[in-house]
Design goal:
The protein is α/β, with parallel strands linked by helices and 255 residues long. The chain has one domain: Rossmann fold, CATH 3.40.50.300. The protein is 38% helix and 31% strand. It has eight helices and twelve strands. It is globular and about 50 Å long. The protein binds adenosine-5'-diphosphate and magnesium ion (2 copies). One magnesium ion (MG) binds next to loops.
C-alpha cells in the first residue's frame, strides 16, 4: 500500500493585485485503493490543490507538506512526481502540436518505467485500451489533443491513466463537458484502474453526476480553500439535493 499525505497545506498565487492566498490549511490522506471525492463550489480552490500536487510553477506553497510514502513531493520536479506514481488529469488538457498520441504514450511510459515497453505487448495493450475507451484507431496517429473534442480529450486522458498505471490519480473535473455515454466510458476506465490496479483516486468535481459511476468512499467538501466537511458517500447525496448554499452562507457570515 502507498499513501499520499497532504498536511496543513497553504498555497498562494501571484496576481496583478498582489499575492492571493488560495489554500488555507488543507489536510488529506489517500491510500492506494481508496477513492476520495473533492466537491465544492467554483473558485473554492479545487484546481489549485490538483495543480499544486502536480507541481505547477504558478502556485507557491507557503507552508504544509505533501508526501508520498514519506517522500517529499514538493521537492520533486514534475517528471519525478510522475515517476513516483502521481498522475494528473487536468481540467483543461493541453494540445501538443507535432506529437502523435502513439509517440506521446510510448515516451511517457518509457520515462515513467525507466525503460521502453516491449513493443509487441505495448502495441497490443494500447490497442486494447483504446478499444475499451471507444477511441477510434486513427486517433493513434493524431497530434495530442489537437482538434479533439472535450470528450475525446477526456478519453485520451483515461487512456494515459490505464497505460501508465500510476499509484495515484488526481482527476480534475473529468466529468465536465461529457455526455452520458462518454461519462460511462470514462468512468469504466477509471473503475478498471481502481479495481485491477489498486489506484488511489482523488476525484475533483463540482457536480455529483460522475459519482453515480465512480463510487467514492470518502467525500470532502471544499469551501474557500479548506475542507468544510468530510463524510462518506451519503454526503455527496446530500449535496446533490441541497447544493452548496449552506456552506456559502456560513462562509460569508464569518468573512
Ligand atoms: P476551483 O477549481 O474550485 O473552481 P480554483 O483553484 O480554480 O478553484 O481557483 C481558486 C481561486 O483562485 C479562485 O478565486 C480563482 O479565481 C483563483 N485563481 C486560481 N488560479 C488563478 C490564476 N492563475 N490567477 C488568478 N487567480 C487564480
Ligand atoms: Mg473552477
Ligand atoms: Mg477547477
Amino acid at each position: 500500500m502507498s499513501t499520499l499525505e497532504i498536511k496543513d497545506l497553504h498555497v498562494s498565487i501571484e496576481t496583478e493585485q498582489g499575492v492571493k492566498p488560495i489554500l488555507k490549511g488543507v489536510s488529506l490522506t489517500i491510500n492506494t485503493g481508496e477513492t476520495h471525492a473533492i466537491m465544492g463550489p467554483n473558485g473554492s480552490g479545487k484546481s489549485t490543490l490538483a495543480a499544486t500536487i502536480a507541481g505547477h510553477p504558478r502556485y507557491t506553497v507557503d507552508s504544509g507538506s505533501i508526501t508520498l510514502d514519506g517522500e517529499n513531493v514538493l521537492e520533486m520536479t514534475v517528471d519525478q512526481r510522475a515517476r513516483a506514481g502521481l498522475f494528473l488529469a487536468m481540467q483543461y488538457p493541453v494540445e501538443i502540436p507535432g506529437v502523435t498520441m502513439t509517440n506521446f504514450l510510448r515516451t511517457a511510459k518509457t520515462a515513467i518505467d525507466g525503460e521502453a515497453p516491449k513493443l509487441r505487448t505495448w502495441t497490443k495493450d494500447v490497442k486494447a485500451a483504446m478499444a475499451q475507451l471507444r477511441i477510434e484507431p486513427e486517433f493513434a496517429e493524431r497530434n495530442v489533443n489537437e482538434g479533439f473534442s472535450g470528450g475525446e480529450k477526456k478519453r485520451h486522458e483515461i487512456l494515459q491513466l490505464e497505460l501508465l498505471k500510476p499509484k495515484f490519480a488526481i482527476l480534475d473535473e473529468t466529468d465536465s463537458g461529457l455526455d452520458v455515454d462518454a461519462l460511462k466510458v470514462v468512468s469504466e476506465g477509471v473503475n478498471r484502474s481502481i479495481e485491477d490496479g489498486g489506484l488511489g483516486t482523488l476525484l475533483i468535481t463540482h457536480y455529483t453526476r460522475i459519482l453515480r459511476y465512480i463510487k467514492p468512499q470518502f467525500v470532502h467538501v471544499f469551501v474557500d480553500g479548506s475542507i468544510a466537511e468530510q463524510g462518506g458517500p451519503e454526503l455527496a447525496d446530500r449535496l446533490e439535493d441541497e447544493g452548496y448554499d449552506r456552506y456559502q452562507v456560513a462562509e460569508s457570515a464569518t468573512a
